[in-house]
Amino acid sequence: MSGSVRAAGRPDPQPREPSSSPRPRWGLVLAGAAGGAALALYVAAAPFVAPALRRVCLPFVPASPAQVDNVLRLLAGRRGALVDIGSGDGRIVIEAAKRGFRAVGYELNPWLAWYSRYRAWRVGVHHSTTFYICDLWKVNFSEFNNVVIFGVPQMMPQLEEKLQQELKGSARVIACRFPFPSWTASHESGKGIDTAWSYDSKSFKITGNESLNKTTERTGPV
Ligand SMILES: C[S@@+](CC[C@H](N)C(=O)[O-])C[C@H]1O[C@@H](n2cnc3c(N)ncnc32)[C@H](O)[C@@H]1O
Ligand SMILES: *[C@@H]1O[C@H](CO)[C@@H](O)[C@H](O)[C@H]1NC(C)=O
Ligand SMILES: *[C@@H]1O[C@H](CO)[C@@H](O)[C@H](O)[C@H]1NC(C)=O
Ligand SMILES: CC(=O)N[C@H]1CO[C@H](CO)[C@@H](O)[C@@H]1O
Questions:
Q1: What residues are paired with 133 via a beta bridge?
Q2: Cβ contacts of 179 within 8 Å, gap of 6 or more
Q3: Ligand 1 centroid vs 83 CA: distance in angstroms?
Q4: Cβ(215) to ligand 4 under 6 A?
Q5: What structural domains does the chain harbor?
Q6: Strand order across the beta sheet in which 102-107 lies
Q7: Residue nearest to atom 5 of ligand 4 (CA)
Q8: Ligand found nearest the CA of 163
Q9: Considering the entire predicted model, what is its pTM?
Q10: 206 Cα to the center of ligand 2, angstroms
Q11: pLDDT given at position 6
């Protein structure tokens, strides 16, 4: 069951959401068909994007409906700007926009970005969504207080460092399927490959003070 948010390490301060959102059946059908079409587009575009992906290969694997659900559960009660890093066909950005976020996707594959813009227009959230065709490693994410990543394990240590430098103290980061290696999650939602973890930036931001204190603790007072 993916219907609950579990506290990881400390009690859950948020009320639980109802376990099912009233989404019409055709929405899922459309999402499935769209995923297939976008995958075909990705295969067609693969030779053009390959050089930029040399650093870490992050393929287009769309989030499952349960995964999208788990991500949004962990963002319940949040507002403001949201980014999906490697937004694929835009499904997370679009769902977030429907819940009132100003939602942005960064996607290296231009076909997927254009397809996302089309989907956002189709469902009427084009005013609150933006899709950039851009390499995620070249973006400064400091303006976002909600960050979503469905990555691959090889990129997570590097991304952890990048976000730690850029994000503000109020930010929340959600990782899908693969957690961050050294941060401690505050909550998790879902099971197995659909699991999502949330991290609050207060728990991972390194301020000058904390590092000073850590050094002192390690050395120990004389
Ligand atoms: C695992 S998919 C996740 C898609 C979407 N977030 C979702 O959950 O459905 C990762 C996406 O990141 C994109 N990507 C890969 N490398 C990237 C890069 N360097 N910059 C931006 N996007 C990238 C891929 O094209 C792919 O669409
Ligand atoms: C990101 O942008 C913010 C605001 O413009 C800036 O203060 C910060 O230094 C930038 N961070 C990096 C790592 O470039
Ligand atoms: C660091 O140490 C100072 C002085 O001992 C203390 O007031 C402060 O709360 C500590 N900060 C953290 C983040 O532990
Ligand atoms: C222990 C320590 O270094 N405290 C400093 C934390 O940072 C503030 C300003 O950001 C300083 O005023 C403290 O002296």
A1: 107
A2: 156, 185, 195, 197
A3: 12
A4: no
A5: 65-213 (3.40.50.150)
A6: 5-7, 187-189, 196-200, 172-176, 146-149, 81-85, 102-107, 129-133
A7: 209
A8: 2
A9: 0.72
A10: 15
A11: 76
Residue with CA at minimum distance from ligand 4 atom 6: 209
With a 6 A CB cut-off, is 168 part of the ligand 2 pocket?
A: no
User: Do 176 and 70 form a contact (C-beta atoms < 8 A)?
Assistant: yes
Question: Could you tell me if 174 and 196 are in contact, meaning their C-beta atoms sit under 8 angstroms apart?
Answer: yes
Tokens 């899922």 map to which residue?
A: 28
Q: Which amino acid appears at position 15 of this protein?
A: P
Atom of ligand 1 nearest to the CA of 136: 20
Encode pLDDT of 15-42 as tens digits: 444 444 444 455 444 544 555 555 555 5
Q: What three-state secondary structure class fits 103?
A: strand
Q: pLDDT-based confidence at 53, cuts 50/70/90?
A: very low
Q: What are phi and psi of 150, to 5 degrees?
A: -115, 95
Q: Which pLDDT tens digit goes with each residue over 211-222?
A: 555 544 445 454
Is 90 exceeded by the pLDDT of residue 179? Answer: yes
- Written as one letter, the residue type at 99 is R
Q: What is the pLDDT of residues 93-103, one digit of tens each?
A: 999 999 999 99
85: pLDDT strictly greater than 60: yes
Q: What are φ and ψ of residue 66, in 5° steps?
A: -65, -40
